[in-house]
């Protein structure tokens, strides 16, 4: 289970959150990106399954950039932290369809609990998938047409 994150350099709470997440041992790999461009470049390459995306965003402009590139992470579970919980920021944030959208001031332990449940659920879903040899095979036969 991996965590891919974008943290605003000015967001102290997000950095504290990452420290607490790494101590909790939920994820095997935590990738931290400090710019949108860096995150967008990373998202152009395949990610290990399962991965959760954690984004702490500080401006409406950054949210708009995320909306333009949301096709890069539509299949990745998203947790979105917004620094300013203004109605406009929350409305834009909901357009990204996150699993969780919270202001930065939210209790860090509560966020870790949510991330733990998400990770557990994704792991369970991975384990429930049958192995390739157990999956039903599609057999195609040519029809004899006259």
Structure description:
The protein has 146 residues and is an alpha/beta fold. α4 links the parallel β4 and β5. It is 40% helix and 18% strand. The protein has five helices and five strands. α1 crosses α5 and α3 runs parallel beside α4. Strands 2-1-3-4-5 form a five-stranded parallel sheet, with helices on both faces. The C terminus is likely disordered. The radius of gyration is 19 Å and the shape is globular.
Summary, kept brief:
The chain is an alpha/beta fold and 146 residues long. It is built from five helices and five strands; from the N terminus they run E-H-E-H-E-H-E-H-E-H.
The major sheet is characterized as:
5 strands, parallel
The assigned structural class equals alpha/beta
Low-confidence stretches: 132-146
Strand order of the largest sheet: 2-1-3-4-5
Q: Classify the beta-strand content into a percent band.
A: 15-25%
What is the general shape? globular
How many alpha or pi helices? 5
Radius of gyration over all CA atoms, rounded? 19 Å
Q: Give the N-to-C terminal Cα separation.
A: 54 Å
């Amino acid at each position: 289970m991996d965590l891919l994150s974008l943290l605003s350099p000015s967001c102290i709470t997000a950095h504290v959150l990452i420290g607490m997440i790494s101590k909790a041992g939920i994820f095997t790999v935590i990738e931290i990106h400090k710019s949108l461009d860096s995150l967008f470049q990373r998202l152009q390459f395949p990610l290990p399954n399962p991965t959760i995306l954690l984004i702490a965003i500080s401006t409406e402009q950054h949210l708009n950039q995320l909306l333009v590139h949301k096709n890069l992470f539509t299949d990745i579970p998203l947790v979105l932290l917004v620094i300013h919980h203004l109605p406009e920021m929350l409305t834009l944030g909901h357009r990204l369809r996150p699993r969780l959208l919270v202001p930065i001031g939210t209790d860090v332990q509560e966020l870790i609990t949510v991330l733990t449940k998400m990770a557990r659920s994704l792991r369970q879903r991975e384990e429930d998938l049958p192995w390739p040899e157990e999956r039903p095979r599609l057999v195609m036969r040519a029809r004899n047409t006259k």
